[in-house]
Specification:
By secondary structure, the chain is α/β, with parallel strands linked by helices. About 40% of the residues lie in helices and about 15% in strands. It has one domain: Metal-dependent hydrolases (TIM Barrel, Alpha-Beta Barrel). It has 10 helices and 8 strands. Strands 1-2-3-4-5-6-7-8 form an 8-stranded parallel sheet.
């Protein structure tokens, strides 16, 4: 059984062959997919997919790059969207200081509201953090001491310090195709130390296709297989990536998406 813990199936990258992609995913053992929130305005599209396909679930949230558009967002606003039976998480949300597309104080304000929503709803929090580890840990630690809540660091690319902090409050770490990149040696070491019961895998599709598919559009099931096997291989200290390449069908070049979020994490790792 494979679960894609974070993807963006409502992006227009999949418009031409959506059903075909889902059929291949199911045929390759993917039993569930979590369609992460990017902004509240797209929630209706997300829920429509979740209602049509029983194995697709939804998270409600605002990506930090979009925080300025939702500066007045409250935890109550988020909670009002969680009553649908297919909404199973809050996010993605967090802090992104790499791009600084939104003022940091606004990102922090909106992130706090997501944390409150997770505390009140009991739903797990899906966290995006980039170049913002200290503020992320500070905000989470402060809130957790007031009222514990669960969550995960999606597409984890952080330090061992951040990983240890996450484990200390019972969070999960999610591995994406980034762990296969040439400059991800330290990241692979972090995941090799991670207890398997705290490991999640994700595609973040249509982004972050693993080597050797890097730079192409990624369908959900490709990295479902690939990321899971790669993580397991590193945990077992086996260097056998070539064995897995054959499990990855060729994907087409990526088209534009609705995310409006600009460069993705793999761009920085290329440098």
């Amino acid at each position: 059984m494979l679960v894609d813990s974070h993807c963006h199936l409502d992006f227009n990258d999949f418009e031409e062959d959506f059903d075909e992609i889902l059929e291949r995913a199911r045929a390759n053992g993917v039993t569930a997919m979590l369609n992460a929130g990017n902004n509240i305005d797209e929630l209706d599209n997300q829920l429509a997919l979740s209602e049509k396909y029983p194995f697709i679930y939804t998270a409600v949230g605002v990506h930090p790059d979009n925080a300025s558009e939702y500066e007045s967002l409250t935890a109550a606003d988020l909670l009002a969207q969680t009553h649908h039976k297919k909404v199973v998480a809050i996010g993605e949300c967090g802090l992104d200081y790499y791009y600084d597309n939104c003022p940091r104080d606004v990102q922090i304000k909106v992130f706090r509201e997501h944390i409150k929503a997770a505390q009140e709803s009991g739903l797990p929090l899906i966290i995006h953090t980039r170049e913002a580890e200290e503020d992320t840990m500070s905000l989470l630690d402060e809130a957790y001491k007031e009222k514990p809540f669960g969550g995960e660091f999606h597409c984890f690319t952080g330090s061992q310090k951040l990983a240890d902090f996450g484990l200390s409050i019972g969070f999960y770490l999610s591995a994406s195709g980034i762990i296969t990149f040439n400059k991800s040696n330290e990241l692979r070491e972090v995941f090799a130390r991670l207890p398997l019961e705290r490991l999640l895998v994700e595609t973040d599709s249509p982004f972050l296709a693993p080597v050797p598919k890097r730079g192409r559009r990624k369908a959900a099931f490709i990295s479902g297989w690939f990321s899971l096997f790669v993580v397991m291989l590193f945990v077992l200290a086996i260097n056998a990536l070539d064995i897995i390449y054959s499990a990855c069908p060729v994907s087409r070049s990526r088209t534009s998406s609705k995310s409006g979020r600009g460069e993705r994490p793999e761009k920085a790792l290329q440098r």
